[in-house]
Amino acid sequence: MPRRTFLEAIRDAQYEEMKRDDRVFIMGEDLSCNLFGTATGLADTFGLERVRDTPISEAGFVGAAAGASMVGARPIVDLTIASFIYPALDQVFSIIAKSRYLYGGQARLPLVLRAAMFYGNANAAQHSDRPYPMLMTMPGLTVIVPSGPCDMKGLMKSAIRSDDPVISLEDGTLWTTKEEIPDDEDFLIPLGQADVKLEGSDVTVVAIGGAVRHALNAAKTLNKEGISIEVVDPRTLAPLDRETIVRSVCKTGRAICVDPAHRTCSAASEIAATIVEEAFEYLRAPVIRLTTPDTHIPFSPPLEKGLYPSKESIIRAVRKLVGNAALES
Amino acid sequence: MQENLQDLSIEFLRRMMRIRNFENRAEMLHAEGEIPGALHTTPGQEGAVVGACMALRTDDYMIGTHRSHGHPIAKGANLKGLMAELFAKKTGVCQGKGGSMHLSDFSVGSLGETSIVGSGLPVATGAALGTKLAGKDNVALCFFGDGASNEGTFHESLNLAAVWKLPVIFFCENNGYGATTPVSEAMAIEHVADRAAAYGMPGYIVDGQDIRVVYQAVKEAVARARRGAGPTLIEAKTYRYADHAVNMGRVLRDRGAELDQWLKRDPILLFEQVLLNEGVGNDVIAELHAEVEAEVEEAISFAKSSPYPDPLEAFDHTYIDRVPIPAGFKVGL
Q1: Does the model's ipTM exceed the 0.90 cut?
Q2: Nearest to residue A311, comparing CAs of A222, A226, A204?
Q3: C-beta of residue B159 within 8 angstroms of C-beta of residue B121
Q4: Which residues from B are below 8 Å from A73, CB to CB?
Q5: Where are the beta strands (DSSP E) in A30-153?
Q6: Between chains, do B106 and A103 touch, taking CB under 8 Å as contact?
Q7: Catalytic, out of A127, A214, A262, A296
Q8: Residue A108 is inside which H or E element, if any?
Q9: Is A127 a catalytic residue?
């Protein structure tokens, strides 16, 4: 199996699906120059009609993707950075999420919106957003936040083949991570299915995007202390696979929700609420959310660094939950 | 005109009458409490709406606005599904999910009637992109109002369509007001059509009360789009006799003499006069009135006798698959 980076996984998924289906095309800013490295060789292979550079016009081209999808095309929109979705939100919320519903099922909108969450890199408050919680609140959208190259590719391919609109928010802290990916053109990971990344018995850590890596690293350290962690990655945040999360917590009796988004109404909040509602009698300790506090992302690296959940903050939270706080140095 | 003028003219009149009659009756039924929600009517604008739609093929695409009743009727939709939708019934064209602001019949080429001002322009642009990429020759026409031309999406869409030479017709129903605000208070130029120049596309002003003029202008824009020469902006100068929405309990703006002037140029009355002058008999026109009236009454009976949707259908069409119904969800009011 070839080892590919997160960015190469996105590129490969797009390449394979464009090759498989003529109706798939990509548009976005500076695509033909492969600005972000997710379109390597695509313009040369498929031409500039199907790998389409756009003016800086997010509402225009996101809405155009909606229209194109309604007449049978299957657009992928590369929004580059996640906060660039904001100028297009009316199109996302009023058209893309609602057209199928409003018109009683007459419309189909098979499209994908992609954007990188570019946090942790000294890009300040406007370029560091992790906006998936806001998108989760809108029915009709499927929202994926993959945690590694393999999931990225399999979920992206499913997203492109889906007849529902899918938004892929791609964690920039994972861009250079590498994984072996099955060499199969029909390698698909189903939308709406969580994955247990590590089995364990003492604490369930539900982690999102880049936080999954931190959870797995924390588990290694904690394992040496005799604490067994189960790491659950929802992978798709909307619709959320509540069943897998609840099943895990029923087994472990403890839960930590790790989410790089801001705390209020975070994905972690929804997951924690679900656990409390559906697994209350199994809980041996309060559910903990580890999130980014409700302040903006600053430019200065020393200011920014401590804000996000980390391996260390997960370890601290787990020790607190299992009553091993004394191990805290 | 090359088409059979007589047949086409009768159809012009029939569809204008359908819209007028459909809305008159809908307004009464709304007042009687039979139709829930808001109702935005379009009396006075029928010439612009029908003239534009009849210049399209059935498989050409169209997207409209919250003032949605006229567009599907003009494009040839059956009145039963439209009226049943106003009545919020299962047999409605949107199965009771859309209502008055979203009367959209995809079987006649509609891609939606969207009630957020300006939101349809990028969609029409994208539909044109989709057909172009698929190598088809369908065009897309976007209805929007004078108010929408001040939204960012108007400018982004015209620019995109022009730079990509897309087969789209941007059709502005300039009825003089954005809700209650006069155009003169909303923009510093007189004509929406003048904005076309900024995007490198032709912009035309037409008399929206003269259906043949509208039809001809759109026909030419459609031909231009179909041969790959790109988009056109057409501004129909028209007028809405009714308030922004019906039965709001008070007159929002007294338009006095201005309204009287426009009523004298009613598109239906003007066109009936044209046909009479051309030798069409009074009896033909009277017959047409009766035919349309019967058609609308039949649609009302259909709507009244149709069932409401099952409450569990609230969970359909959010996604392709029904969303899970919460445990303990109780149906009914």
Answers
A1: yes
A2: A222
A3: no
A4: 129-130, 133-134
A5: 51-53, 74-81, 112-117, 142-144
A6: yes
A7: A127
A8: none
A9: yes
Question: What distance in Å separates the CA atoms of residue A293 and residue A300, rounded to the nearest whole number?
Answer: 16
Quick check: A312 contacting B, CB < 8 Å?
A: no
Segment holding A287, helix H or strand E = none
Question: Which residues in chain A touch residue B142, judged by CB atoms under 8 angstroms apart?
Answer: none
Residue entry with tokens 């056109």: B232
Please tell me the distance from the alpha carbon of residue B292 to that of residue A167, in angstroms, as a whole number.
Answer: 46
Return d(Cα A208, Cα B239) in angstroms, integer: 54
What architecture is the A195-323 domain classified under in CATH? 3-Layer(aba) Sandwich (3.40)
For A302, the token pair is 């020393």
Q: Which residues pair with B256 in a beta bridge?
A: none
Of A64, A99, A239, the CB nearest to B122: A64
With 0-12 CB in 10 A as exposed, 13-18 as middle and 19+ as buried, what is B53?
Answer: buried
Would you identify the CATH topology of the domain B5-306?
A: Rossmann fold (3.40.50)
Counting one residue from chain A and one from chain B, the pairs whose CB atoms sit within 8 A come to 154
DSSP A202: S
Output the CATH code of domain A3-180: 3.40.50.970
Return the domain boundaries, chain A.
Answer: 3-180, 195-323
- Spell out which residues of chain A touch residue B163, defining contact as CB-CB under 8 Å: 55
Q: Closest chain A residue to B131 measured between Cα atoms?
A: A71
- Report residue A181 as tokens: 């990916």
pLDDT at A329 > cutoff 60: no
- Cα–Cα distance for residue pair A246/A224, rounded to 1 Å: 26
Residue of A nearest to B321 (CA): A164
pLDDT, tens digit, for every residue of A158-170? 999 999 999 999 9
CB contact under 8 A, A60 and B112: no
In A, which residues are within 8 Å of B103 by CB distance? none
Return the CA Rg of chain A: 20
CB A93 within 8 A of CB A138: yes
Identify which of A80, A83, A78 has the alpha carbon closest to the alpha carbon of residue A129. A83
Say if strands A229-233 and A236-238 run parallel, antiparallel, or are unpaired.
unpaired
Expressed in percent and rounded to 5, the helix, strand and coil fractions of chain B are 50, 10, 40
**Residue A2 carries which side chain, given as an amino acid letter?**
P
The identity of residue A195, as a single letter, is D
User: Between the CA of residue A243 and those of A143, A155, A275, B105, what are the distances in Å?
Assistant: 17, 19, 10, 38
Q: DSSP letter for A37, please.
A: S
* B20 CB-side CA count, 13 A: 23
DSSP-assigned beta bridge partners for residue B170: B142, B233
Return d(Cα B41, Cα B48) in angstroms, integer.
14
Contact flag A63-B126 (C-beta cutoff 8 Å): yes
Per residue in B173-207, pLDDT (tens digit) is 999 999 989 999 999 999 999 999 999 999 999 99
Cα(B296)–Cα(B25) distance, rounded to whole angstroms?
8
Each residue of B45-57: pLDDT tens digit?
Answer: 999 999 999 999 9
The ranges of chain B with pLDDT < 50 are 1-2
Nearest to B146 by CA among B110, B111, B185, B114: B185
